[in-house]
Specification:
single chain, 13 helices
């Protein structure tokens, strides 16, 4: 009868009450998301055979993102920070593999009663081609579609940011990670890039006409997405809802998003998206 396979995972690890620089920096930079990410990452390392985690392909990345409840782009940013803090191994993370020396040292006591040794840090040579057990059927991705998806998201973030600046709203020097995170969040809730840009156009119209509208609160982009987006999408009729008493229904532009992805258009001037109409006529 074959021997029992060695257990190269742990069921628990100690959680200190006092934390060092890693948690301090993560919380300062990412708030509770940073704190939760770190301990969920340690849970993942503890329950993964060999105590290293492979992010070189899509299933590995998707699992870690789902485990931490963050988009992969944010996970990658946090992991880059952890590598710069020497909280995870820089060399292995450079190829998409996560290993934490301090975590492995912390769980070493669990292996003292076992008949096999604590797993050692994998070498660059030994890790080549090795994937987490549930990923073996998938090849590692090094370029191609992953980069294309990232570039596509970055383009959307930039276009929404440019729409905000173009409408002369509260100024921002640059597009920040927090803004990108909030854009991702509202898009996960079902808002399209066109919906967001149309809402920005409506918000700008209201804010720039205080003689007509009672709403005068100026938000930065991140707060607008959190607090104002629902009130300024076309379906909310913001250019009627925010009219002062006694004002007549407006002839100001009412920006709506084209369902076919052409972008915002003025519903007062056109009952139908002019780009779609032009395609029908040609």
């Amino acid at each position: 009868m074959a021997g029992r396979p060695p257990k190269l995972t742990v069921d628990y690890f100690s959680h200190d009450c006092n934390h060092g620089k890693t948690i301090f920096v993560l919380e300062s930079r990412y708030g509770n998301d940073g704190y939760a990410f770190w301990f969920k990452l340690l849970e993942t390392l503890g329950s993964t055979e060999g105590h290293f985690y492979d992010c070189r392909n899509m299933p590995g990345r998707e699992f870690l993102a789902a485990k931490t409840r963050l988009e992969w782009e944010m996970c990658s940013q946090i992991l880059d920070l952890l590598a710069s803090l020497d909280a995870i191994d820089k060399e292995l993370w450079s190829i998409g593999v996560i290993w934490c020396d301090k975590f492995t040292a912390r769980i070493s006591a669990a292996y003292r009663k076992r008949s096999y040794k604590l797993p050692l840090k994998p070498t660059m040579e030994s890790i080549s081609g090795v994937l987490n057990s549930f990923q073996n059927e998938y090849p590692a991705e090094t370029n191609g579609k992953g980069k294309e998806r990232k570039d596509s998201k970055e383009k959307i973030y930039s276009q929404i940011f440019e729409c905000w600046l173009k409408n002369g709203l509260q100024k921002h020097k640059k597009l920040t990670d927090k803004m990108k995170t909030k854009i991702r969040s509202v898009m996960k809730d079902g808002f399209t890039e066109q919906d967001i840009c149309a809402a920005i156009e409506n918000y700008s119209t209201v804010l720039k006409s205080p003689q007509k509208y009672f709403f005068t609160y100026s938000w930065p982009l991140e707060h607008f997405l959190s607090r104002g987006l629902n009130d300024f999408v076309a379906e909310a009729n913001p250019l009627t809802k925010f009219l002062k008493n006694g004002q007549k229904p407006i002839t100001e532009p009412i920006w709506v998003s084209c369902p076919n992805g052409c972008g915002p258009y003025n519903k007062v001037e056109q009952a139908e998206c002019p780009k779609c109409l032009q395609r029908k006529l040609t």
